[in-house]
Amino acid sequence: MGAAPQAPRTRVTARARDLRFDAGSLSLNLVATVGRRPVGPVERMGDVERLAAWCSGVGLTPAPGYEAEALLRSLHALRDAAYDIASSLLDGHRPSPASVDLVNGLAACEPPVARLELTPAGVRPAPGGDLLTEDVLLSMVARDLIGLVSDASRGKRLTMCASEVCRMLYLNPASGRARQWCSMRRCGNNAKAAAHRRRRAATAEG
C-alpha cells in the first residue's frame, strides 16, 4: 500500500484494545485483532490469554496440547498476509507474493470432516469433532480469506470504516443499507459527537 495517512492522535483506551468479532467473516475478525490500521496500530491479541479469548469468540476450539505461543505467532503472520490481501481489494495495490504464498500454503491442509454418532436419544454430532489441530485452525482462516477474495459479491461488500482513527475492514450486510462505520455504537456515535462539537464551536465563533 502507499504512504499511510496521518490519523488524529487519540488515547489508546481499554475499549480500543477490545477484541472485535463483528467484521463479517472469520479472516476479517483475525485482521481486526490489530486496531487502527494502518496508522497507530493497536495490538489486541498479544498474548496467549487473548489468543484463547479470540478463538472462543470466533468459535474455534484448539485441540488439547496445542502450542499456544506457536499458534499465536502463526496467526500474527497470517493476519498480516490477510490484511495485505483483503485491503488490496479496496485500494488496488498488488499484494506481496509472500502473503499469497503463505495463505495458499496454510489453506492446503484439509479441514476436519463432520461426523455424526447414533445414541439412544437419537443422532448427534460426534464428540471431539470441533477440536482443531493448529494446522487445521490456520487452514480454516486461510480458506475463509480465499473464499472472500473469490466471491465477487462478498468482495463488493468489503469496506473500510470511515473513521480516520479506526479504519477497520468489514463486510457490509448482503441486504439493507451499507454501513459507513464499522459500528454505529462505536465509530458512528463518535463521528456524530465530533461533528456536533464542530458545529457548536463554529456557532460560538460566529
TrEMBL record:
| Domain annotation Zinc finger CGNR: ranges | 157-200
Transmembrane stretches in the record are: none
Short name of one Pfam family: zf-CGNR
Q: Which InterPro entries match?
A: ABATE, ABATE_dom_sf, Znf_CGNR
Source superkingdom: Bacteria
Q: What is this protein called?
A: CGNR zinc finger domain-containing protein
Organism, by scientific name, is Streptomyces tunisiensis
